[in-house]
Write a structure and sequence with these properties.
This protein has a single domain, classed as Homocysteine-binding-like domain (TIM Barrel). It is of the alpha/beta class. It is globular and about 45 Å long. Helix content is 44%, strand content 13%. The chain has eleven helices and eight strands. The longest helix is centred in the N-terminal third of the chain and has 22 residues, at 90-111. An eight-stranded parallel β-barrel has the order 1-2-3-4-5-6-7-8, surrounded by five helices. Helix 8 links the parallel strand 6 and strand 7 (243-248).
Length: 310
């Protein structure tokens, strides 16, 4: 079953995502994720059970709240640069990306449509996610991300989502690669405390640049790994029509501060949800809501409640 031609989150109903996968698995479940790579858990039974339990908790939440859910494969780091650091060959990465989708497909079959589950093949930046490094042209980015995207396109994944991108040219390459592979692409940028991308470009300019270079081929845009106080002041312009998803951090700390933190800052779930309610009134098509670093089911439950009510 594939929803590629009719992504349900575009119809106006609320869809939740999970929260901060890696921070939950590390700080709450006590697992080791080298280089913040959760895909390594796919390689043994204990890791698979940890992922299954993690996903199942959000499926239960979506069922209880009566909303759909979009779940990403645990493959944010499963690209050549990070895979090489972890000893994974190109063939290994292709296999692990396929198995990430297979795990979510198993869960979709088990839930039998309740809640509606959209499977997202997750990819991350070539670089760190907080810093602008290994900068590529759009053509280079397309070549770099194409193998992972083609792998997802050959599975039952409904779309691909590029999370925590730091500059527009990489996003352009991702969208072009997905278009060539025949699978919808969602682009999620991250911003610093001034509301600008790590390379200094404004969020609106980045979204407009991607749309202009790709003929608006991205299914929609998201924002992740930033606190609402970091970007609430920049939400103005026609580009907001293209912003449909938000996965905020629990903490208002900067990326640099989070990088140095030794303890999890989970913030206040109720306060974060209230900020989402305000943001939803300002972002006309915000239907995809969830969390990023430091968030868990508590945060997403509160966020879902205000999103459904607003």
């Amino acid at each position: 079953m594939s929803l590629r031609d009719r992504l349900p989150q575009l119809a106006g109903e609320v869809f939740i995502t999970d929260g901060g996968m890696e921070t939950t698995l590390i700080f709450e479940n006590g697992l080791e994720l080298p280089h913040f790579a959760s895909f390594v858990l796919l390689d043994d039974q204990q890791g698979l059970e940890a992922l299954r339990n993690y996903y199942a908790s959000y499926l239960t939440l979506a069922h209880e709240q009566g909303v759909g859910i979009i779940l990403d494969t645990p493959t944010w780091r499963a690209n050549p640069d990070w895979g090489n650091r972890l000893g994974y060959s190109a063939a290994d990465l292709e296999d692990v990306n396929r198995r990430g989708v297979a795990l979510l497909e198993e869960l979709r079959l088990e839930t039998d449509g309740d809640p509606p589950l959209v499977i997202s093949g997750c990819l991350g930046p070539r670089g760190d996610g907080y810093l602008v490094e290994a900068v590529m042209t759009p053509d280079q980015a397309e070549r770099y991300h194409s193998p992972q995207i083609r792998t997802f396109a050959a599975t039952s994944a409904d779309l691909v989502t590029a999370l925590t991108l730091t500059y527009a040219d990489e996003a352009i390459g991702v969208v072009r690669a997905a278009r060539n592979a025949g699978i919808p692409a969602v682009i999620s940028f991250t911003v610093e405390i001034d509301g600008r991308l790590p390379d200094g470009q404004s969020l609106g300019e980045a979204i407009e640049a991607v749309d202009e270079a790709t003929g608006e081929s991205a299914a929609y845009f998201m924002l992740n790994c930033a606190h609402p106080t970091h970007f609430e002041g920049v939400l103005e312009g026609a580009w907001l029509e293209r912003l449909r998803g938000l996965r905020a951090n629990a903490s208002s700390k900067s990326h640099a501060e989070l990088d140095e933190a030794t303890e999890l800052d989970s913030g206040d779930p109720v306060e974060l949800a209230a900020q989402y309610a305000t943001l939803r009134s300002r972002i006309p098509h915000l239907t995809v809501v969830g969390g990023c670093c430091g968030t868990d089911q508590r945060h997403v439950r509160e966020i879902c409640a205000v999103a459904v009510a607003s």
